[in-house]
Amino acid sequence: MLKEEWKNKIYHGDCMRIMPKLPDGSMELILTDIPYGAVTQNGEERAKYGGQMRKLDKGLADIETFELNEFLQQLYRLSKGSIYIFCGIEQMSTVFSFFNEKKDMTARQCIWHKTNPSPVNGQHYWIHSIENCVFAKKRKTTFNQHCKHNVWDFPVGRSKIHPTEKPLKLFEYIIESSSNEEDTVFDPCSGSATTAVASKNLNRKYICIEKDRRHYEDSLVRVENV
To answer: What share of the chain is helix, strand, coil (3-state, %, to 5)?
Structure first.
């Protein structure tokens, strides 16, 4: 059973060490934005572009620090409703297949369409204006939408305290769609705690985990100011 004193807190540490301590089937909704791994590219890795493209470097924020299948197994164990995982294109197949092969779950690919994408390198290539999300849902669990499409149009926020921060309105939309008031929303890679802020705004409980000390401390201040 998920104890009440565990809720509405952000924990500092490695999610792969903390998640095994949480009980099976304890989270109505899991919403997370995992490190994309391949996004951070600089130096020789970008040499093939011959200086045409601006370098993308998000530091430690997008370095994958866990074995992906072990991570997904923990999320599956903890879930009793829906799971949303924002991930890189190289991770999509692994994440989608993992959940779609489960007999009690159905998976879908979803897209966040950035309505105001950065024009970086637009003189050379199509402007990058989408990010992928895998949605997996257990049967007969909460879904508060009706005939809505899987492409979500939301602008990129311009005031970020984390380099890969997702828009608050986007996370609020997802939380409203797949949970009810007083439900618990779990985010094992919480970054700047957008999941916690959105949950607090919508009268949901939250449990978040963040490994990076600076982002953890910044997120405590952000949530306190809501």
So the answer is: 35, 25, 40
Q: Are 63 and 40 in contact (CB under 8 A)?
A: yes
Would you say 23 and 209 are in contact if contact means Cβ atoms under 8 Å apart? no
Q: What is the pTM of this model?
A: 0.90
Q: Please state the φ and ψ torsions of residue 27, each to the nearest 5 degrees.
A: -120, 120
Q: DSSP code of 56? A: B
Question: pLDDT by residue (tens digit) across 173-216?
Answer: 999 999 999 999 999 999 999 999 999 999 999 999 999 999 99
Q: Are 16 and 70 in contact (CB under 8 A)?
A: yes
Which residues lie below 8 Å from residue 88, measured CB to CB, with a gap of 6+?
Answer: 36, 37, 38, 39, 132
Please say whether the beta carbons of 36 and 94 come within 8 A: no
Q: How many Å apart are CA 111 and CA 151, to the nearest integer?
A: 5
Instruction: Give CA separation, 98 vs 53, 95, 101, 121, 184, in Å.
Output: 34, 5, 6, 34, 23
What contacts 51, CB < 8 A, 6 or more positions away?
A: none
- Measured between alpha carbons, how far is 162 from 78 in angstroms, rounded to an integer? 26
Integer Cα distance of 129 and 136 in angstroms: 23
For the chain, count helices (H), then strands (E): 6, 8
| Residue 39 pLDDT class (50, 70, 90 cuts) | very low
